[in-house]
Amino acid sequence: MIEESKQTEQTENIDPNVAEENNNSAHLETELNAEATATDAPLDQEAFSAADAAEWEEMEAEIAALEQEVAGLKVQLDERTSQYMRIAADFDNFRKRSQKEKEELDQQVKCSTLGALLPVVDNFERAQAQIKPQTDAEKNIHKSYQSIYKQMVTALKSLGVSPMRPKGQEFNPNLHEAAIQEPTNEYPEGTVIEELIPGYFLGERVLRHAVVKVAAQGEHMIPSEESQPAESPES
User: Any residues with CB less than 8 A from the CB of 186 and at least 6 apart, and which?
Assistant: First the structure.
């Protein structure tokens, strides 16, 4: 009992810092013993290698599957891109064709409408050439309808209508209609010598063909016997 009380007194008299160092030392020794025990335990290298190989093979299979999937998606993308380009090209061709057909239809309607007005212009021009007003009343009437004629001509010009004026040009069946062929030596054969019905353009398009008179090969004069000089009696 006396010894135990002494030990108790000694324990109570120990410095707290010394006690803490002792505890830390005991803790470190325990951890070192545990590491030594773990190091001394043999590792199953064969099991580890087999598991690693299996995992690697699985990863390779997944990569191959992903590469195959990417290749398939690339093929689909190429097909969709090609299909889109074909659709875009077809649409562009359709748009151009529709625009061209619309312009052609507008031009046909315009030509039909303006072509119906040309005979009115012809009548004005015939009246201008044939009628010679004498009295003041006739001159006023003549002046009135000539004013209307000028307005119509101005309107036609604003729409792109222009006269052909083929006189002196070579006959062109795409522009002219030959109504008469007249033998003459004044013009080369095939030359338009007179415009009987005026022709007109609408822009670069023929609105109405010109009806014309065309020069044919002229008749060459053959000297008669009377016109030939008489031979001299001495010859």
Answer: 193, 215, 218
Average pLDDT per consecutive 10 residues, the chain (235 residues; last block may be shorter): 47 51 58 53 56 80 88 89 91 92 90 90 85 81 84 91 92 93 90 93 92 82 42 39
In contact, 175 and 208? CB cutoff 8 Å? no
- Tokens 């090969």 -> residue: 217
Q: Dig out the tokens for 163 from the structure.
A: 């006269």
Is 171:179 a contact under the CB 8 Å cutoff? no
Strand partners, 182: 215
**Cβ atoms 195, 209 nearer than 8 A:** no
Burial of 164 (0-12, 13-18, 19+ CB in 10 A): buried
What's the longest Cα–Cα distance across the chain?
203
Phi, psi of 103, deg, nearest 5: -65, -40
**If you write DSSP's letter for every residue of 117-184 in order, what string do you get?**
HHHHHHHHHHHHHH----SHHHHHHHHHHHHHHHHHHHHHHHTTEEE---TTSBP-TTTEEEEEEEEE
Domains present along the chain, CATH in parentheses: 162-219 (2.30.22.10)
Report the alpha-carbon angle 185-164-203, nearest 5: 155
Task: Look at residue 219 in the predicted model and tell me its pLDDT.
Answer: 62
| Axis-axis angle for helices 136-158, 45-130 (nearest 10) | 170
Amino acid at 59: M
Q: Are 190 and 179 in contact (CB under 8 A)?
A: no
DSSP structure class, residue 191: B
From CA 124, how far away is CA 171, in angstroms rounded?
A: 27
